[in-house]
Structure formats: C-alpha cells, structure tokens
Write a structure and sequence with these properties.
The complex is a heterodimer of chains A (301) and B (319). Chain A is built from 13 helices and no strands. Chain A has helices at residues 2-15, 19-24, 28-34, 36-53, 55-58, 91-127, 129-143, 147-158, 162-189, 192-199, 204-240, 252-261, 268-295. Classes of the chains: A mainly alpha (301), B mainly alpha (319).
Chain lengths: 301, 319
C-alpha cells in the first residue's frame, strides 16, 4: 500500500508542475473569473442553463399555442415581446424553450461522443500495435466526412427526432475525442511515474484509469466545452435543413428555417433565432478559451 | 520526396476503403425495406420487389459490399431513379459548381484573414488587434446558415444589390456571374477567414519573439521586410495544418450555404436527394465528398513537407 502511495504522490506532483500559477491564483474558478472574456462566457452559459431549466416561468406563452388571428406580429406588439410567427406562436416564448433543445443536444451528444471517444483513445494509445492501427484507421475514416455531412447522412437514415439528433451528432463527435485522448495518452505513457507504477506491478486497468486518464482530464474538459458549441450549431443546422427535431418542437434551428420562409413579411423571426445561436455558441467558445488558458496555456487544442 | 509521396499515397488506400465501409454501413441502417422507403407509400409490391432486385438488396451483406466496392472501382456509382441518369454524370455536373464556390470562399478567407492576422500581430495589444480578435471570435462562432439568411435579407431583399438565389451563367457576362457568387462566397468564407486570422496572429506572435527576428531588426531591415519576408514565411506552417481541416469544414458548410442560396452544387444535390428519398444519390455524393477530402489532405501533407522538409511522419497521429 505504501508503494502505491508513493506513485500516487508522484502522479500528483506531475499534475501540479505549474506551481507558480497555483500560488498566484488559488483555484481554477478564480483564475477563470480573472479573465474578463472567460467571465463573460461563463455568464452567458449560466444564463442559458437558467433559461432552459426555468423556461416555463420565464416564457410568457406556451410555446406551441397558436393564434391565427395574430400571425407575424412585429417586435413589441401587445402581449408579444418579440412578436409572433406565421402560426401566431409567441416568438419570445419559443426562443426561451428553444434553449432546452440546444442544451440537451449540446451536452448529451458531447457526453456520448466523449465517453466512446475517450475509451477508444485510451485503449488505442495505451496498448498501441494492431489494435491502435485498426481503431485509428476507422477514426481516420470517420474524420474524412465533414462533421455536419456525417450528421446529415446519419439523420437521413435515422429519421427526425431529438434522440436521433443526439445520436447522430454524438457519433460525429467520437473521432475528435479519440484523437485528442490518444495524443494525450502517448505523451503521458512514457513519463517516469507510469513506468514506476508499472514496475510495481499495477494492472493495465489501474494504470489507465488512475494515472493516465486523470492526466488527460484538462484537454478533455477544454475539448469537450468547445465541442458543445459545435454540437449546438450542428443541431441548429440539422433542424434548419428540416432533418433535426420534429415540428412543432421549438428549436432555434427550426425557428430559423420557418423564419427564412417569411423573411420579407417578418424578418426578425430569423434574426432573433440566429442571434440566440450565435450568442450561446460565442459564450461557450469564450468559456472554452478561458478554461484552456486557466488549465494550461500551452495546450495544443 | 518521391518515396514520401508514394508512402502517403499508399496510406490513403485503407482510409478510402474504410470510408466506403462506413458509408455502406450507414445506408444499411435504414429501418425497414430501403426499396419501399425510396418508392414511397403508393408503390406496388411488384415495384418494390423489382427495385430490391435491381439494387441487389436481397443478396447477403458481404456479397452486397463486394459488388458495391467493385462498382466504385469501375467508376460506376449506379443510376438514380429520381433523376433517371447515371449518378456519376449528376455528380460531374454539380461538382464544378461547388469547386467554384469553395475556391472563391477560400480566396476571400485567405486574402482577408491572413493580412488581418499579420496586422493584428504586428500591432500587438493595440486597438486594431483587439478589433481583429473580437471579429474573428464572433466569426468562428458564427452559424453560417444564419449569416447567409441575414445577407439575403439585407443585400437582396432590402437593398436589392445581389440576387438572393441561383448561379449566374458565364454566358451572361462576368458581372451577373460575380453578383450571384458574392453572397454565398462570403457566407462560406466567414469561418475559415476567422480561423486564418487567429492562426496567423498566434503563430506570428510566436515567431516575432525569436532571436533571428531580433537580429533581422538589429540589421536595420525595415519593419515591413522583417514581418513579411522573415516572420510570415515561418508562420506559414501552422496555417497549412489548419488548411486541410478548413477544406473539410467548407465542404460541409457548402451543404448549408448551397441550400440557402439554391447554388446548384453537391450540397444542394444531397439535400434534394434526401427530400426525394433517393438514398443511392445521397450515399454516392457523400462518398465522393469524403474521397475528395482524403485527396485534399494528401495534397496538404505534401505541401507541408515542401514548406517544412524536417517534418517526420513516423510519429504522426498524436494531438
């Protein structure tokens, strides 16, 4: 047991080799807030999460309530903050509910891709050899498809629906995570503390999950955050093409699609739904950039 | 160099094969009878059976795959039922249009993004630097399909400067052709433009702190020569690394851009085929785009080697 503790402490030492940074700022959160852009990003993300959770209280109308007597009203109409769409549905309320779809797809799809991609990357990088070649060749194959095109193709086969969007975007996320993690494993694998652990008779499982994976957490967090932004855009793109969530579900992408058809009569349906996508994606990207700088400014991501 | 190109070329073959396997597997994931789905609910049982026979869908999966790969090798992508033409012909009609769009977008992205990055880096922490960084930050976060719709709204609907949809014919002269091209190109160029600006800026900043730049300055060379001739040349390599990725992103972005502007390229072909449930066209076009991307990456790798001869590919495949 004592021998294991030694390797553990060596491992920790390796984790904290930026001790100067550590002294300057007590924890990650404080370092993050010190970066003004990252703080803005965090604010946007927090706002989005709150909006999604408390949507029924923040929205002024049920998102699917139609009123054919009040179609295509402009911004600031009575009772409708941002006007109504072609079915007379309240745009502000649909926008609020739309954050749910974006957030659910963004987080779930990335978790799906991250879990499978991480396992593949760990196995591939740690064991190497034929297994590595086979896995990485397959990943190269998946990488040959432009991200959105892979998602589009999968959606054609799977059919519309929230779960299928998560699945399609999730699968498209796998090769990216596999590559990032594999690269990280390769660089950590040769470190001394891994060799020591191995020479002490630690099993592969223990080395991978107790020593290699913890050292891959930082790039995983940064890459994962950035991927959420990509997944949100992908969901919106799929719904914009009519391949995403099923109508009448309020998604920013499907709102943009409907808004595009009424661009001349009521241009702000398209304008506000796209702005919602842009602001949330920008916020997540700012947070991702900030996390990278706070965790390790030299990270190659 | 010849050996390097050959080995990269041979490396490409398994990747292409796997791409073919993936497309094959995805299309076999269609729930139910693909022939019935393609023909729609009104089709008779006989028609469905005839199409199943024609597509070889009643054969064992392995047999289907070997036939499929064999046909691809012969350059035969099959015949589209909805277009009633060989798919190779349809793709060859559409492919040049996508190339025109992507090439002009890449040109805009390069001509705007790279100088913006250079200026930004040479005036580090100035107002112009912050401005370029802000704009490129918004650029990389841009949902391009929304940008396209907004450009149509302002420049076509409100101002009437450019046509909202379609592709002009060269026969009508160069001006209408360019007028049709400009909005889709800007839409497609936005993300690579922002990426180029960011990459150029960060690699320039890294290079200008090196000793040889200091000594070039100490020699009394003008700032312009130092930046363009000495610094930029060495900042070019990271730019090339993202080029391959950007081309992939653009081929994907082209699907959305072409849909918004009804640009008759490969992307619009895919979306049309999806609406008509013509899976054979979807499958072949997606496969073709993936092949193009693999080839583009090979070219980028070779360019990379020419710019930076010390690159060692034996350890490639990391982060």
């Amino acid at each position: 047991m004592t021998t294991m503790d030694t390797t553990e402490s060596m491992n920790n030492k390796n984790n904290n080799n930026n001790e100067d940074d550590m002294e300057k700022a007590p924890n990650l959160f404080m370092r993050l807030l010190r970066n003004r852009l990252a703080a803005i990003g965090l604010f946007v993300v927090a706002l989005m999460v709150i909006t999604a959770i408390f949507a029924p209280w923040i929205a002024t109308h049920p998102p699917y309530e139609m009123d054919v007597t009040k179609t295509l009203l402009g911004i600031g109409s009575e009772g409708h903050l941002l006007g109504t769409d072609n079915y007379g549905r309240d745009i502000y309320s649909r926008l609020i509910y739309g954050s749910r779809v974006s957030l659910i797809v963004g987080v779930s799809a990335v978790l799906f891709g991250a879990i499978i991609g991480t396992i593949l990357g760990l196995v591939s990088g740690y064991f190497g050899g034929t297994l590595d070649s086979v896995i990485m060749r397959f990943m190269d194959g998946l990488f040959a498809f432009p991200f959105i095109l892979l998602a589009i193709t999968l959606m054609t086969v799977l059919g519309q629906g929230l779960f299928n969007v998560i699945l399609a975007v999730g699968i498209a996320n796998i090769p990216g995570f596999a590559r990032v993690i594999r690269g990280q494993v390769l660089s950590v694998k040769e470190e001394e503390f891994i060799e020591v652990t191995r020479s002490l008779g630690a099993r592969h499982g223990r080395i991978i999950f107790q020593h290699i994976l913890p050292n891959s957490i930082a790039p995983l967090i940064v890459y994962g955050t950035m991927s959420v932004a990509g997944a949100i855009i992908s969901e919106a793109a799929l719904s914009f093409l009519g391949l995403g969530v099923q109508p009448p579900t309020a998604s920013w992408g499907s709102m943009l699609k409907e808004g595009k058809d009424f661009l001349v009569l009521n241009p702000h349906v398209a304008t506000v739904s796209g702005l919602a996508i842009l602001i949330s994606v920008l916020g997540i990207n700012l947070l991702g950039d900030g996390l990278r700088d706070a965790l390790d400014p030299k990270m190659k991501l | 160099m010849g050996k390097f190109i050959l080995s990269r070329f041979l490396n490409m073959i398994p990747t292409l094969l796997i791409v073919a396997v993936i497309v094959f597997l995805i299309t076999r994931m269609i729930p139910g009878d693909p022939a019935a789905v393609m023909l729609g609910p009104q089709a008779s049982v006989d028609d469905v059976e005839a199409l199943t026979e024609q597509l070889g869908l009643n054969e064992p999966l392995v047999k289907q795959f070997t036939t499929y790969v064999g046909d691809i090798l012969k350059g035969d992508f099959g015949t589209s039922i909805t277009y009633n033409r060989p798919i190779v012909d349809i793709i060859m009609d559409r492919f040049p249009n996508t190339v025109i769009l992507a090439a002009s977008a890449l040109l805009i992205a390069f001509l705007v993004g790279v100088p913006a990055g250079i200026i930004s880096a040479s005036r580090h922490n100035s107002l112009i630097d912050y401005f370029v960084m802000l704009v490129s930050l918004v650029g990389v976060s841009m949902p391009v399909f929304w940008l396209g719709v907004m450009l149509v709204l302002y420049f076509s609907v409100n101002l009437g400067w450019f046509p909202a949809t379609g592709m002009g014919s060269m026969n009508d002269g160069i001006v209408p052709f360019l007028k049709h091209l400009i909005l889709p190109s800007i839409t497609l160029a936005t993300i690579p433009m922002a990426e180029f600006a960011r990459i150029t800026r960060s690699s320039m900043l890294e290079v200008v702190s090196q000793d040889y730049i200091k000594s070039a300055r100490a020699k009394g060379l003008s700032e312009w020569i130092v930046i363009v001739k000495h610094a930029f040349k060495n900042a070019l390599t990271p730019l090339l690394t993202v080029l391959g990725l950007q081309v992939s992103m653009m081929l994907g972005g082209a699907v959305l851009t072409e849909t918004i502007f009804s640009w008759p390229g490969m992307g619009l072909l895919i979306i049309d085929a999806i609406e008509k449930r013509d899976f054979i066209v979807v499958q072949s076009t997606v496969l073709f785009i993936a092949f193009i991307f693999v080839v583009v990456n090979l070219i980028v790798d070779i360019l990379y080697k020419i710019v930076n001869p010390r690159v060692d590919y034996s350890s490639k495949g990391g982060s």
